Amino acid sequence: MAEKIKINRLKVVLSEKDISHKDFAKMVKKTPNTITRICNNEQQPSLVALREMAIALEVDISELLVPTKPKR
User: What pLDDT tens digit does each residue of the chain (72 aa) get?
Assistant: First the structure.
């Protein structure tokens, strides 16, 4: 089985902000199941949805993505 590539950090950010999947789903008008699948990197949000999530969480959109290269 191929290793799942982690693309988003939504689970981490929700944990840091102490927001449940269910509460966040209400904030962004998605189902709790959709948020769980995104948090588990089983599905990825569209760029528009990712932007809405960043706005709802009051973070820069880049904080919701796994970096592709280390910061200098």
Answer: 667 889 999 999 999 999 999 999 999 999 999 999 999 999 999 999 999 999 999 999 999 999 988 777
The rounded distance, in Å, linking the Cα atoms of 71 and 22 is 32
| Sequential DSSP letters for the chain | -PPPPP-B-HHHHHHHTT--HHHHHHHTT--HHHHHHHHTTSS---HHHHHHHHHHHTS-GGGGB--SS---
pTM of the model: 0.88
